[in-house]
Design goal:
heterotrimer; B: 257 residues; alpha/beta; Rossmann fold; 2 domains; 6-stranded mixed β-sheet; 11 helices; globular; C: 318 residues; mainly alpha; two-stranded antiparallel ribbon; 77% helix
Chain lengths: 297, 257, 318
């Protein structure tokens, strides 16, 4: 009897842990999305593409240039970040002052362009981003964990804490929050909106790219990998409230766990549907988000 | 019977009371002014009356029935029409189209009539044309019929706002700072228009900062400050009201053009 | 001026009727039919996006639902094209109501994403409920439409030429419906909602009801297009709800020029015919679509239709 219970506990914990691991990836991507929306009122459809580009950047860095996996993380973040800034600068900046729908469509066009360019250049065959860690799982309380997953979780948490610190503490961070509250007033008060713009998109793209590099060794990488991740990130942002970083963090984990539990206990084929249903419900009954209020927090 | 009754209306945003137990009524056919410093809650009150905001406490009644729980379009259907502080029109449409939209609720023959081009459809189009003409005449704006709304001068755009509101056949018209940004000539024109509207039997509630206009055309004035009603009376009474003078000290001197 | 207009229209009609006879190759005619189907889809999306001003990213869900309605009807009930032509828009319309009711309460970007979410859910079900929908392989073997009056007519739409004229008739039908609705009090309501929703509500327009009507009609248009697709290509598969169609239809409407009737038609023809003609692979096609979509939003917000109008204006001024 007790061993039966034990098994049930183990299964539960396993699903929980798996959920947390994938969840924090959702959080990373979602934070980028929510920061961009919180500050500029723009829904960035390319957020998933940055995820993919980060992973591929790391792939080519490690494979062709022999860079170590650990170094590839910040490098991929920088490469993607710069790309993100350049690309948004051309398409988003020129459209300043227009309605939201315009940005929705322009970033969508951008996403389609980049994603399919990747497909044309690199092909649809999935590739493997090698992990620097030994593949043998570590067992803890009956739960199987690879070192890669542990590293992923720790690294992601550190990044999120750093970003939160940055936005709360640094001067640029305060400028970001000012622009989030009121762009015009902030500009009048002498805040360099351009720098805020660069910082915002840089962080957004960078975090997404990091997520891609961290998750890369666990799942195969291919050009369409950003798709579903984008939708998941949206779900998280809607759950946590637009502009709410802490909300995105917790809700990312919640989504990951919910999916994992759903896959394990209900039906694994419809795993992706759980998040979608949650999002629809949140939008219907609590559109400001489960934890949300406004502004950038 | 009072046509509009605002009963103990309070509206909170978070912890802040934008409106606090506001109480007043409007009798059919009168012109009442609503004044107060910036932030006193005048636009909030408009939002509550027209259904864009629900009162946290209290009720709004129109012709004896509670309307504070109705949707904005339902309240508009009862004949309560408002204009906005910041010019609110349909910029890319022509003046005629703008006014036609105001006319919309007068006659709604149904989708099938549009698809099958029945008599009902044609009648409706005819009535719309007639209605537009009438409003343009009333406001002497025939010349503007085919102009794109956003190409009109500021003063004419504000006139268009009133035209749209009028074509919705209001019984109660709420004007939110209609004189804002108008030059003295346009302001005089506005005053005449408001008087003309009253002659049609429409009750009018005007929010304004332009004191001369308010004192000239309003029969009664309600004064708000920090969400509370601090005074109500005839223009003469309000001008001599101690608290009103205190609140406006310094402001009124600049408003008098 | 009026006579000139009628002459122009007459020429267009003659060209449209004669066009497929100019091309002997089946492939060219196939491109024409394919463009036709995309015209239907673009008009449907344009109805929602161009006139009412909402952006339903999940729009192709109605396309897929329409196709599957007739496909499943054939598989389990033995129904044919003509039944499907009526059933598909009805089913799509019902889903339009169900999806629209919660989604239309939301503004702009939220609405876009929620409709996408619904589309994804439908795609998931189509892919995974294998016993009912045959899963990711889809349903094949859907028959071509027939007209049979025993003793008199035995006519099957098995040839691109016949399909062309069928599609033309249906396109004309769509254009008529669009035109009539837009040039009526209903069209005014939608315009008002698109241009200034709060003001529309403030003058007594029941904005939610009108949004729903527009959405359901757009859905029905997508559904009927789905039925035609299914009987022409003889298959229905889950990718009809997928990203390729989302991107393509949006690109067509945006680049063609939303909010007009000519725009989506131009967009659909151009973006079916040209890539096909250049034999561009699906992926490369999308790269170019994305690029042109982006450029057109920045530099040509009125789309190709706007460009055409600009040229017309210049001619008139001469």
């Amino acid at each position: 009897m007790s061993s039966f219970l034990f098994q049930k506990m183990e299964l539960f914990l396993q699903q929980l842990v798996n959920g947390l691991v994938i969840g924090i990836i959702y959080s990373l991507v979602a934070i980028g999305l929510t920061v961009i929306y919180g500050i500029f009122d723009i829904i960035n459809m390319t957020q998933g593409t940055f995820f993919m580009i980060g992973a591929f950047a790391a792939y080519f860095l490690t494979k062709n240039l022999g860079v170590s996996y650990f170094l590839s993380i910040p490098l991929a973040m920088i490469i993607t970040g710069v790309m993100g800034i350049l690309v948004e600068r051309s398409s988003v900046r020129t459209l300043r002052g227009q309605q939201n729908i315009v940005f929705l469509l322009s970033t969508m066009g951008l996403m389609v362009l980049l994603e399919n360019l990747a497909l044309v250049l690199w092909g649809a065959t999935p590739r493997q981003l090698p992990s620097p860690f030994a593949p043998e799982p570590v067992v803890f309380l009956g739960v199987f964990l690879t070192r890669q997953k542990i590293f992923l979780f720790l690294c992601a948490t550190v990044m999120i804490l750093l970003v939160k610190r940055f936005i709360k503490g640094s001067r640029l961070g305060r400028s970001m929050r000012a622009v989030a509250t009121d762009q015009n007033t902030a500009a009048l008060m002498g805040i360099d909106v351009n720098r805020v713009f660069i910082a915002t998109f840089g962080i957004g793209a960078g975090l997404s790219a990091a997520a891609g590099v961290l998750l890369g060794p666990i799942f195969d990488i291919e050009p369409a990998m950003g798709h579903l991740t984008l939708i998941k990130a949206f779900i998280v942002v809607i759950m946590g409230g637009m502009g709410n970083i802490t909300g995105a963090f917790y809700c990312g984990l919640i989504l990951g766990v919910a999916e994992s539990m759903g896959a394990g206990y209900i039906n694994v084929d419809y795993k992706d549907a759980f998040g979608l249903i949650i999002m629809i419900l949140v939008l219907l009954f609590r559109p400001q988000g489960l934890l949300g209020k406004g502004g950038l927090r | 019977m009072a046509s509009l009754q605002v009963k103990n209306v309070s509206r909170y945003f978070g912890g802040v009371a934008a409106l606090s137990e506001v109480n007043f009524g409007l009798s059919p056919g009168e012109i009442v002014g609503l004044i107060g410093p910036n932030g006193a809650g005048k636009t909030t009150l408009f939002n509550v009356i027209t259904g864009f905001s629900k009162p946290s406490r209290g009720q709004v009644l129109y012709e004896g029935r509670v309307i504070s729980d109705l949707a904005p379009y339902e309240i508009a259907s009862l004949g309560i029409i408002r204009t906005y502080q910041k010019t609110s029109i349909f910029p890319v449409l022509t003046v005629a189209q703008n006014i036609a939209i105001g006319h919309h609720r007068q006659n709604q023959p149904g989708i099938w009539s549009a698809l099958l081009r029945t008599q009902a459809h044609h009648t409706e189009r005819q009535e719309s044309e007639t209605g537009i003409k009438e409003i343009l005449d009333f406001l002497s704006m025939d010349w503007a019929k085919d102009y794109t709304a956003q190409n009109l001068s500021y003063g004419d755009q504000r006139k268009l706002e009133i035209a749209i509101a009028l074509s919705a056949r209001p019984k109660l018209l709420l004007l939110d700072e209609p004189a804002a940004g108008l030059n003295p000539e346009e302001t005089n024109g506005l005053m005449e228009v408001i008087k003309k509207i009253q002659e049609r039997g429409i009750t009018i509630l005007v929010v304004e900062h332009h004191m001369k206009l308010v004192m000239r055309i309003c029969e009664r004035i309600v004064v708000l400050n920090y969400g509370k009603k601090i005074a109500e009376g005839t223009p003469a009474q309000i001008q001599n009201h101690e608290e009103v003078i205190k609140v406006y000290l310094g402001e009124e001197v600049e408003e008098q053009t | 001026m009026n006579r000139g207009r009628w002459l122009f229209r007459a020429i267009v009609v003659i060209v449209v009727l004669v066009l497929p006879l100019l091309f002997e190759s089946t492939y060219a005619r196939h491109i024409l039919v394919s463009s036709g189907i995309f015209i239907l889809l673009s008009l449907g999306l344009n109805f929602i996006m161009g006139y009412m001003g909402q952006t339903p990213f999940g729009y192709p869900v109605f396309f897929g639902l329409g196709a599957y309605t007739t496909a499943l009807g054939f598989t389990y009930l033995g129904t044919d094209f003509w039944t499907g032509l009526i059933a598909a828009p009805i089913v799509a319309g019902i889903f339009g109501f169900l999806i629209g009711y919660p989604s239309l309460r939301l503004r702009g970007p939220y609405f876009a994403i929620v409709t996408l979410a619904f589309a994804e859910i439908v795609a998931l079900i189509l892919n995974n409920w294998v016993s009912f929908t045959r899963g990711s392989m889809g349903i094949s073997g859907i028959p071509h439409p027939k007209i049979i009056i025993p003793g008199l007519i035995d006519f099957t739409f098995n040839h691109e030429l016949k399909w062309y004229y069928l599609v033309v008739i249906i396109c004309a039908f769509y254009l008529l419906v669009n035109h009539r609705l837009i040039h009526s009090y209903a069209g005014e309501a939608w315009l008002a909602i698109r241009e200034n929703e709060d003001l529309a509500e403030a003058v007594g327009i029941h904005t939610f009801k009108w949004k729903m009507i527009s959405f359901v009609i757009g859905a029905m248009m997508g559904g009927m297009a789905g039925c035609i697709y299914a009987h022409y290509y003889t298959i229905a598969s889950p990718d009809l709800v997928g990203f390729y169609y989302i991107t393509t239809i949006f690109a067509m409407v945006i680049i063609g020029g939303r909010g007009t009737l000519l725009g989506p038609v131009l967009g659909a023809i151009l973006f079916t015919a040209v890539p096909e003609y250049l034999r561009a692979a699906k992926t490369m096609r999308l790269v170019i679509f994305g690029l042109i979509m982006l450029l057109s939003i920045i530099f040509m917000p009125q789309g190709l239709n706007g460009l055409v109008n600009d040229i017309r204006e210049r001619f008139r001024r001469r």
